[in-house]
Amino acid sequence: MDKKSKIILTGLLLIVPCALLVIFFNGDLTASATRGVLVASVSSEDAKQIALDYIGHGVAEDATLMTENGIQIYAVDIRHEKVHYVIYVHGQTGDVVRMLRTEEGYQGIQTLPELLSPEELDDLEME
Prior knowledge:
There is one protein chain. The protein is α+β, with helices and mostly antiparallel strands and 127 residues long. The chain has four helices and four strands; from the N terminus they run αααββββα. The protein has helices spanning 3-26, 29-33, 44-55, 118-126, and strands at residues 59-68, 71-80, 83-90, 96-103. It is rod-shaped and about 95 Å long. The termini are far apart.
């Protein structure tokens, strides 16, 4: 083996293990370069469909991408009859992380209308 080949082989034997250690401890090189910046991999249309599948009815009106604690989350507005939902969908995983439900006519009070009729609710308020 000539001197040039020995130098190249020695260099490779030193560089390859170091590169493998960097990859092992940092995940992969592209992840370490973009660490701290999470980019949404779920589209707004995907977020709407995920929210509709979660609720099972209604019409998705809007999907707004926002950042909470460095994580991108879609707020998807869904309306069904007198009920308004806001479903929060994780921008990378597509998981539903939170849901808000309000019903028109109940002045912001979250109720279960199937448990109390409007007349029964009026009776409770008069007591």
